[in-house]
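=== RUN LOG ===
request id: a7f3
mode: sequence -> structure
chains: 1
length: 240
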Amino acid sequence: MDRSVKVAALRCRTSDRTPGGARGAQALALALDPDARMVGEFGEPRNANYSDDLRDSRDCLLTAGAVVGGILADGHFPVLTASDCSICLTTFAAVARHYPDVHVLWLDAHGDSNTPATTPSGFLGGMCLGASVGLWDSGFAAALTPGRVRGVGIRDLDVGEWAPEPYTALEGPVYVHLDLDVLDPTVLPAQFPVPGGLTLEQARDVLASLDRVVGVEVTAFEFSDELTEPMASLVRTLLP
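=== RESULT ===
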């Protein structure tokens, strides 16, 4: 591996509802780099409302942004693995401080852009992109305007939920948010499975088409010994 790549796994709880997500983040990070940094301790998963998770997981979420920002500040390429997408509440801001003209490529089965007015579940992981582009106030400053985000594989939206424009081409620096449930459930079982997802080959083609990638975060890998290496191989498509 190119030593300019720095891999970290966020193990502390953000809005985890299963134990497999944080353990999957750890396994994936170690498959990418046996010396990957382990951040935090495993938390207890639970079904909680977004307001409770914003309060209880604030330190963990701030740590996610600090890890990505610190790696960038040291001149390296960050790879952060985590249980769910809530990390974008702080990671996008960290990247934007280093690359003000950054675009985010959001690969996910879900929009994750609900607001308190539209969410049917109250799940913070389903609201985090919305907060990151200023659709509601999470207590974390919005990092991007909606036009800075492009989507791939989004196929499950709630009524009233915003979705980014589909990805065609991006110029300038790109930060990749790879929620592995963008893959079809026949390829990768997921906590929130949605049929009609990408094959591994399709996902790899999208990632290989990108220029000037400045970092990546990977979420929603429910731990599986059998699937750890195939997912790590997919992530390696992005590494310098």
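=== NOTES ===
The chain has one domain: 5-236.
The mean pLDDT is 96.
=== END ===
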